[in-house]
Amino acid sequence: MKKSIVFIFLIFVITSNAYSQWVRQNSGLPPGSKIYDIQFINVNTGFAVARAPYINNTDFYAYFLKTTNGGTNWQRDSSMGENFNAVCFLNENTGYVSSDEYRRTTDGGITWLSVDHIYHQPMNKVLIINSSSAFGFGFVTIDKTTNTGLNWINISTNLDVTTNDAVALTSNKIYFAGTHLGYTTNGGSNWIYNDSIPGQFKGISNIDSNNIMACGTVDAGIVKSTNGGTNWIKIYNSTPSDTLYNSLKYFDPNNALAVGYKGRIIMTTNGGTSWGIQISGANAQLRRVVFINSQTGWICGDSSIILKTTNRGGEILTDIIQTNTKVPDNIILSQNYPNPFNPTTKIKFDIPKSSDVKLIIFDAVGRVVRSITKNNLTAGSYEYEFNGESLSSGIYYFKLETNDFSKTMKMVMVK
């Protein structure tokens, strides 16, 4: 019996490592902590801000975190008092954190100068432009400093929106994501809404002054601009089980990655025409993704989560997609087609009512090679494209599990 348990555990570990290249780091925070923001200035030095609940869960401790070895170990400072939402550093020594106030450090977080914020509103993002200038974005306000954070002024008196994230296309053209998409072309003297696509936008990323992506709630989805934000097109439609993306990284015209609700990570390699998933190993909300180069990045989120990758998250898996919203009479798992296949095949199923769904693919000796869980799928018809390119020829099995149904079928891959 003991050997069997060990064998099953090893199968799980091998399978998880094979398809999940996001590795969890030990933040050292108490269970239930929420890490709101994270930033790295090189492959070793990074910073984060978090909140940890008191024992009675009625209030929170605030933490400032720092690592000098790529996240292997994190130093934690809980003496700052405020619940900070954002962190941004210019270099190893100079940086800011923000909440209802701004704080500035010039010694890597050992000491902090507190700067009162006139509107006392939560600030969600600090964007450093150069050694003296930075912007703060938050609840119905945008602030700016031109003297290294010693003073902040409100520059959004004509703007009545919440702003969540921002990128600098040039030193004067700043684009924000929030209740609307919006921008300035004169360093913040004036701000302009862009209401072409409705929704609450949470994250924004750019690769140059023309190519931008933004992500958000189910209404917003993921959108893209190729002309500096003048026009936007929707390139990803969220679903009821896929409702929120908080942050994204736009690597180049083809590659982008977004993170959000219930540990979800999706990635495109063709400019947003199609999206696959990566396995995070988490079921908590992911709040921010950052990369220091094309391969090495980190994700932070709820449940004290910090994830790291050194290969851009590893393998991209296709997702379960809805092909028809017509409600079927019965639950059906169809034979995959084609069968035999090399190396891709499609698995289709129908569900007559909303249900949690798990699709598991395993080999002839029971080793799981794919496992996808979808919470609260609506009634309709669905399809999953399985790619066995990294696997050997042989017999495989696929199993569909719902709240009240389970069925397994066989398929054959011939290379």
Topology of this protein?
Elements lengths: L1 H18 L3 E3 L8 E7 L5 E8 L6 E8 L7 E3 L8 E4 L5 E4 L2 E5 L7 E4 L6 E6 L5 E5 L2 E5 L7 E2 L8 E6 L5 E5 L2 E4 L7 E3 L6 E6 L5 E5 L5 E4 L7 E4 L8 E6 L5 E5 L4 E4 L7 E3 L7 E6 L5 E5 L4 E4 L7 E2 L2 E4 L7 E2 L10 E8 L3 E9 L4 E10 L2 E8 L6 E9 L2 E9 L2
Antiparallel strand pairs: 1-28, 2-3, 3-4, 4-5, 6-7, 7-8, 8-9, 10-11, 11-12, 12-13, 14-15, 15-16, 16-17, 18-19, 19-20, 20-21, 22-23, 23-24, 24-25, 25-29, 26-27, 27-28, 30-35, 31-32, 32-35, 33-34, 33-36, 36-37
Question: Quick recap of the structure?
Answer:
By secondary structure, this protein is mainly β.
Report the portion of residues in β strands.
Answer: over 45%
Shape: globular
Helix content: under 10%
Q: What is the makeup of the main sheet? A: 5 strands, antiparallel
The computed structural class is mainly beta
Let me know the number of strands: 37
Please tally the helical runs, counting DSSP H or I stretches of 4 or more residues.
Answer: 1
Pick out the low-confidence regions.
Answer: 1-19
What is the strand arrangement across the widest sheet?
22-23-24-25-29
Amino-to-carboxy terminus distance:
37 Å
The radius of gyration over CA amounts to: 23 Å
Can you tell me about this structure?
The chain has 415 residues and is mainly beta. Helix content is 4%, strand content 47%. The protein contains one helix and 37 strands. It has one helix at residues 2-19; strands at residues 23-25, 34-40, 46-53, 60-67, 75-77, 86-89, 95-98, 101-105, 113-116, 123-128, 134-138, 141-145, 153-154, 163-168, 174-178, 181-184, 192-194, 201-206, 212-216, 222-225, 233-236, 245-250, 256-260, 265-268, 276-278, 286-291, 297-301, 306-309, 317-318, 321-324, 332-333, 344-351, 355-363, 368-377, 380-387, 394-402, 405-413. The strands form nine sheets. Strands 22-23-24-25-29 form a five-stranded antiparallel beta sheet, with no helix packed on it. Strands 1-28-27-26 form a four-stranded antiparallel beta sheet, with no helix packed on it. A hairpin with a 5-residue loop joins strand 6 (86-89) and strand 7. The longest helix is centred in the N-terminal third of the chain and has 18 residues, at 2-19.
